[in-house]
Amino acid sequence: MCERGLCAIWRTLELPASLEERNMSRILLQPQRTRASNAGFSRPTVWPMHDISRRRILAAGTAMFAWWFARDVEAEAGHPKVVDIEKHAKGTTLTLDLENAPFPSQDSTVMVFVPSTFRDGGTLDLIVHFHGHGAKAKKAIWDHQLRGQLYDSRRKSILVMPQGQDNAWGKLEESGGLARLLTEVRQVLQAKQVRGRMGRHAVGTRSRLGTVVLSGHSGGYVPIARCIKPIDGRPTGGVDVREVWLFDALYNDLEVFRDWVLARKKTRRSKGHRLMSIYTSGTTMSLSHQLRDDLEEKDIDCVTDEPEGSISREEFGAAQALFIQTGLSHHACTSQNNLFRDMLVALSSKITTRKGKARKISERSTDL
To answer: What is the pLDDT of residues 196-212, one digit of tens each?
Structure first.
């Protein structure tokens, strides 16, 4: 119990105030020793009950309950950078207020989702998803149904969705901006207050950054391209990104994505820099086809899924560059056919040349 809470309860009891009464209380509150105390025994503490009425005892109990309730409210608020915590059977959604968000002076919101399948394993795998032009992270995380798909994948990864401003991404376009954001997210998740709320799904205090995937819908390609573009041999974002997922988002920066894939080619033991582009029609289709042709000329293993669902799961998981034509609308391609879930599953799939049944396309119901 904190000192402030004890003082409030002490005042409620209204113990004797006069000097004589205070001296008497001090005597009564001290352990009273007898000759037997020389043998190591003492009488129990005597409380001056003649000075405490039933009303004062009830008031003290009320004060103690109020202090305890206030303490619990403070514990729920937790870390000062945690604005809100929403618990669901499939996981916990945290709304964070971060200094390294793209625009901390305007809207410093960063959404984080920890699935209930998460168990700390020493490394922190993060899927960073960027919303499209004019969207809001709080709404997009629901509209795209990314949380439910992450849960369904059973993968022990954490979803991070920062708030941008139209097609501008502020601090994330600066050198090392992505690394600073993800470091701050990790530090908040490792804080004692947050770990206490997360229980067995908490991030370990010694966990370090593991696999990082950048995902974007529509205009979300802009921050992805900025983060992976090399400067002096290092990615601008300061993070070694393993995979890039473009959900009807390849509108520009073709050379950036091409050079990123070529920088780390697939081997027998590694999938290299892996890229997925799903497209509807128009610009995203034409640029996806152009990127595929450019990569095939450089002997990159490319697989085209036209129409969606015509290739096997093995081909889906093994290709270094995957191009998918969907019949869905621009806004539905992230949610309806569980592609986000299947990309998560493929993250841990083995490299194989075996071909099995075609990837099953299942329409998603709205849940999270």
So the answer is: 999 999 999 999 999 99
Distance of CA 228 to the CA centre of its chain: 21
**H helix count then E strand count, the chain:** 12, 12
DSSP letters along 95-124, please? EEE-TTSSBTTTB-EEEEEEETT----SEE
Contact call for residues 127 and 157 (beta carbons, < 8 A):
yes
Query: Over the stretch 63-122, which tens digit does the pLDDT of each residue have?
Result: 555 444 444 333 344 589 999 999 999 999 999 999 999 999 999 999 999 999 999 999
The answer to whether residues 183 and 126 touch, using CB atoms and an 8 Å cutoff, is no
- Given the structure tokens 């969207």, which residue do they identify? 135
**What is the pLDDT at residue 268?**
82
DSSP tag of 39: G
Q: Where in the chain is the domain with CATH 3.40.50.1820?
A: 82-347
Amino acid at 324: I
82-347: CATH number: 3.40.50.1820
Do 217 and 137 form a contact (C-beta atoms < 8 A)?
no
Share of the chain above pLDDT 70, in %: 75
3-state secondary structure of 297: helix
Tally the residues of the chain.
368
| Structure tokens belonging to residue 239 | 């993070």
Distance, CA of 345 to CA of 117 (rounded, Å): 13
Q: Are 250 and 303 in contact (CB under 8 A)?
A: no
How far does CA 160 lie from the centroid of its chain? 4
Residue 54 binned pLDDT confidence (cut-offs 50, 70, 90): low
Per-residue CA distances from 269 to 23, 72, 213, 322, 352 (Å): 80, 50, 19, 18, 10
Longest dimension (CA), the chain: 99
Computed from CA positions of residues 331, 335, 336, 337, in that sequence, does the dihedral angle turn out positive or negative? Answer: positive
What does residue 236 show for φ and ψ, rounded to 5 degrees?
Answer: -55, -40
Whether 40 has a pLDDT exceeding 50, the answer reads no
Cα separation of 37 and 26, whole Å? 19
